[in-house]
Every structure is written in C-alpha cells, then in structure tokens.
C-alpha cells in the first residue's frame, strides 16, 4: 500500500486557496469513462456516496475559520494499493471500489484522526474521496487508487489539523499533539491486512521498504542477514518436503511392486489349480481320497470307473 501526502504547489495541489482546482481535476477521468459507457464513482465521505462536486468545494472552502490567507486550507492524500492488494479487494472494478471506500471509512480515516493525539474520531475529520481507475505512466494491469481532500480544520471548524507537521505527540509548547506519519502507515497497513485477510510478505511491508529507503548501513546489513537466514530456512523446508515426497514416492512404488508380485503369485497359483483340475490332463484322473471326498461328483465318477474295470 503506497500512501503519500501531495506537497503544496502552484498547480492543482495549491492548497492555500480554493479546492475548486483540485476537485475539477479529480473529475477528469469521469468524462473519459462516460464516453466509453463505463460506470464512474462520485465523491464520497464517511457516510455518503455520489456527492456533487459543488458540495465538496463549498464544504471544504467554508471550513477555514481563523486560517490566514497563506495557510493551507486542505491537504491532498493519495492511497494506492498494489496489484496483489487490489486482487484481495475484489475481482471487478466495482468490487474493488466498494472495498476501497470501506477501507477509507473503517480503517484509514479512524487511524488518521487518532494519530493527531487530540482525542479525535473519524466523525471529527472533514474529508471527501474520489476513486480513479487509471494511472498514467504505469504499466500495471490494475491501477485503482483513491484521492482524498482533507480539510485543515476539523468538523467543528475549531481545531487545526496538519498531517505534515514534524511534531509527534507533543504535550507542551504551542503545538499540542502532532502527527506521526510512520505510525499512520504502519497502522493502516495492519488494518488493511486484517480487513481483507491479506497475507503480507515481509518484502511488501512498509517497515521493509522504509528500511531499504532510509535505513543506515548497519540496519541494511542486519536486514540483508535476516533475508539470507530466511532464504536458508525456506531452502531447508523445501528440501525436507522434497525428501519426504521422494520417500513417499519410493514407498508407494515398493508397495505397488509388492502388490503386483502378490497378484502374479495368486494368478500363477490359480493357473496351477486350473491345470490340475483340467479334465484333459492325465493328472486330473488321479485324485487323492482327501480331495475327492470334498467333491461328490468326482467320487461317483471314480466308483463308476472301477465297476467298468
């Protein structure tokens, strides 16, 4: 899961003024999909779907109490699942979109609110989301992702909330609370795995990727050593499985061979018995008293034979 906070700029992410430019941009994909007859997803928030763009702009632009002209009025957040994560979210675009909205509402926004350490809940965050299905400059087959416009102020228009602050859970000074982005990324990743029963590999985790990007040489060496150990364990496990399979296969072959030998012996004995009882064979005329006693017909035949003689 890739999550990033778009840095303010003079373009569509200029957050010192109106949110109109960003909201207009977020609808550009809808026109392309409508022309092709493909369904589109409207804006959504914590409780509603298909919200009009005009409502989004008005609500975000009016929630700016006590903010200066140059202050940020909102923040743009991108939430982009990987291809493997998208497959865990559904088989169709519509299923994946519904799963994304559920993830934003049940996991991302609650953790976002909690991370300010100001006793906030999801209902205190004013935000609007917009789902996109395509991504330029990407060769992936699945590209569904979500754009969020999050107000700088809470729903009551009283508390300033900045996810870009460098303060983390401060309890003294002018700024109380703060925002720990690393903690947010870790929590929403765990929430995703729990929500969609996703079995995440170590190399997919935020901690692993963050270590590769920002870790010290010592940390990277430890990570490399851990990967080597994990690979050795996996190789040993695969070797053990292969040996067990080979032994089972040999035992099965030996069992089949023994079974075939027993069958051949039984068939050979049966053939011998048939030849012993065959009337055309001279030995069939010479039977022991024990054998003949079990066959009345043969006994009668012997008596008749003696009388004729």
How is this structure best summarized?
The protein is α+β, with helices and mostly antiparallel strands. It has 10 helices and 4 strands.
Descriptive notes:
With 309 residues, this protein is an alpha+beta fold. 51% of the residues lie in helices and 8% in strands. The protein contains ten helices and four strands, in the order βαααβααββααααα. A four-stranded antiparallel sheet has the order 1-2-4-3, sandwiched between helices. The protein starts with a strand and ends with a helix. The model is unreliable at 274-295 (pLDDT under 50).
H/E element order = EHHHEHHEEHHHHH
Strand content: 5-15%
The tally of helices reads 10
Distance between the ends? 104 Å
Radius of gyration: 39 Å
**Which runs of at least 5 residues are low in confidence (pLDDT < 50)?**
274-295
Structural class category: alpha+beta
Estimate the mean pLDDT confidence: 81
* Beta-strand segment tally: 4
Q: Main beta sheet: strand number and arrangement?
A: 4 strands, antiparallel
Q: If strands are numbered along the chain, what order do they take across the biggest sheet?
A: 1-2-4-3
Q: Roughly what percent helix?
A: 40-55%
Shape summary: globular
Task: Note the main attributes of this structure.
single chain, alpha+beta, 10 helices, 309 residues, 8% strand
Topology:
Elements: E1 2-5, H1 20-26, H2 28-35, H3 53-61, E2 74-80, H4 83-89, H5 93-114, E3 127-132, E4 145-151, H6 181-196, H7 206-214, H8 217-277, H9 289-293, H10 296-308
Antiparallel strand pairs: 1-2, 2-4, 3-4
């Amino acid at each position: 899961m890739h999550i990033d906070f778009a840095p303010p700029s003079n373009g569509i992410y200029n957050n010192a003024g109106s949110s109109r430019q960003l909201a207009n941009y977020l609808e550009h994909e809808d026109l392309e999909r409508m022309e092709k007859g493909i369904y589109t997803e409207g804006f959504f928030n914590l409780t509603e779907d298909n919200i009009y763009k005009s409502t989004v702009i008005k609500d975000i632009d009016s929630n700016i109490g006590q903010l200066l002209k140059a202050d940020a009025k909102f923040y743009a957040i991108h939430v982009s699942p990987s291809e493997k994560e998208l497959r865990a979210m559904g088989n169709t675009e519509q299923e994946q979109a519904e799963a994304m909205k559920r993830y934003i509402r049940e996991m991302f926004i609650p953790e976002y609110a909690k991370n300010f350490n100001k006793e906030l809940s999801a209902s205190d965050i004013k935000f609007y989301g917009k789902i996109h299905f395509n991504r330029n400059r990407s060769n992936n087959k699945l590209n569904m992702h979500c754009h969020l416009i999050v107000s700088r102020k809470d729903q009551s228009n009283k508390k300033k909330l900045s996810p870009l602050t460098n303060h983390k859970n401060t309890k003294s000074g002018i700024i109380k609370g703060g925002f720990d982005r690393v903690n947010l990324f870790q929590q929403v990743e765990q929430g995703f795995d729990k929500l969609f029963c996703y079995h995440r590999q170590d190399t997919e985790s935020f901690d692993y990727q963050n270590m590769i990007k920002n870790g010290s040489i010592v940390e990277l060496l430890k990570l490399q050593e851990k990967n080597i150990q994990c690979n050795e364990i996996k190789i040993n496990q695969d070797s053990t499985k292969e040996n067990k399979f080979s032994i089972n296969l040999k035992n099965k072959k030996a069992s089949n061979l023994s079974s075939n030998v027993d069958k051949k012996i039984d068939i050979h004995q049966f053939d011998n018995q048939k030849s012993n009882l065959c009337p055309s064979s001279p030995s069939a005329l010479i039977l022991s008293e024990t054998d003949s006693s079990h066959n009345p017909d043969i006994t009668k035949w012997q008596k008749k034979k003696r009388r004729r003689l």
